Known about the structure:
The protein has 164 residues and is mainly β. It has a domain at 42-147: Hypothetical upf0131 protein ytfp (Roll). The protein is built from two helices and ten strands, in the order βββββαβββαββ.
Amino acid sequence: MVLSYIGWRVDEFTCDGQANFWFKFTNILVNTAYRMSTSTTSFVRLFVYGTLLSASKHPMAQNLRQKTRLLGPGFFPGRLYDLGMYPGAVYDPVAQSNVFGEVYSFTESGWKRERKTLDDYEGDEYVRSVVPVQTADGLVDCWTYLFKPPTDSLPRIESGRYFG
Length: 164
């Protein structure tokens, strides 16, 4: 069985018998297995689109990978801007373009421990907001960091994908 959505193809789908599903997604950038839990434990989702992506070598991205679970790819309607060493995203529910990234899952306690560190990392240029993100499982609400300053003079990343 081959499933697909928005440029991603699900190549494999398996269950380890303990309510954990494995999906193998393929796109032009990555070919990685993502583990998705069906546990009833409460989780907080974080959508990342820049230096915190799983392919990033940034120490903060490495820290995130150690303390969370990568659920897989996602996107929201909006625009992505090139700020030099990192991108900035603007959520716009009526945009004809999308911002692509990945969704991570924190336990409630893990989120409480890590959100100040993430807020400090993102700095004053960003505001932490909840946005609806399209994933393989449908729309899910995720925290993300949206760029606050005016974007009129900033170059857009037309693809909506940050390549670092």
